[in-house]
Amino acid sequence: MKLAVLRSQRQRAPARRALAALGSSSGSTGQATRAMSILGTIFGIGEFEGARNQSLNRSTNKQQAYDLALLNHPKFMLHNVLEQDTPFLMGHVLVGASQCLTPLMHQDSLDAAVRLQAAIDTAKEGRNATLWELVLCVGNPTSQEKMHVLALDAMIHGRHHEAAAVYETILLQDHSDLLALRCCYDLYLFLGDYKNMLSTVTRRLPSWSPNDTGYSHLLGMQAYGLQAAGRLDAAEALAEKALSMNGNDRWAFHTMLHVLEARGSANHGASYANQYREAFDNGGPLERHLYFQWALYLLDLGNYDRINKMLEVDIFPRQQDGASHSVRTLCDATQLFWRLRFAGEDTSELGQQLLEGWAA
Description:
Helix content: 55-70%
Strand content: under 5%
Largest sheet: none
Distance between the termini: 48 Å
Number of domains: 1
Order of helices and strands: HHHHHHHHHHHHHHHHHHHHH
């Protein structure tokens, strides 16, 4: 049975092509594995989930490569998939959204602007018109795709409320557009708008069935929204349900860590993180932040040596190639710096590393 990321019974062309972009456009930056970081964020899957030892070779056809990349081991398959490098509008949109919303390194954020320009050029198809003019063309079969470009443009240039409004408009037309939903959700998170972060998922869930591929990931997103709204019991129950459907759902796991922290359950939280370490210790976009959440429990327990080791290896490692960390990583490391300093720990080396990181 063909694997699908969007709803199995109601696939829509724009959203499907957006996800198929995993294999259709490697783009001008050449950052193949980093550029696809939104994959892990959208679906909460690990880089090595599924058939780790399945043979990967050049005879694998394009659709098989997509399926493997989406649900098994994306990093291993991307090199095979990205060989196609076909000019593809939603391919640029997907990669640009990835680099903007879930940068693994600072360079991803810079490369997002390059992806945006490639998407704009592809959308215009040589015509002298603005994107809004193209979107409003009557009978334009790709207007939804061009709306994705509009949203990406607003997002990259810091017009986050505008971008969220465009994504909401896309979702009014197509509740199954998981790319639009994920981006809209993340924007509300960045804006601190927890009410809309929760409601944008809640509004779409009735249109989905538990049998639809991707349903558990919506539950994980809703669970995180519930804990952000302070509804800890409901968040915990929904996160456990999502994890029962997909044991590697990182947003559901992330929710559980937040719930246990809010309840002051340091011992339980540290034990829980250690128990499920293999579920997130595999290079995904949330990995370093999840280690940060784990470190917060260790702070309460006074296990400072282990926190310093986590910082060195898992949260804020020195980059051998001189690359700059993402802002999220710098923020997490800075939080730990001040907490350790207030606890009386020697933070001089960490402080110097942070100065270099923020100045890069």
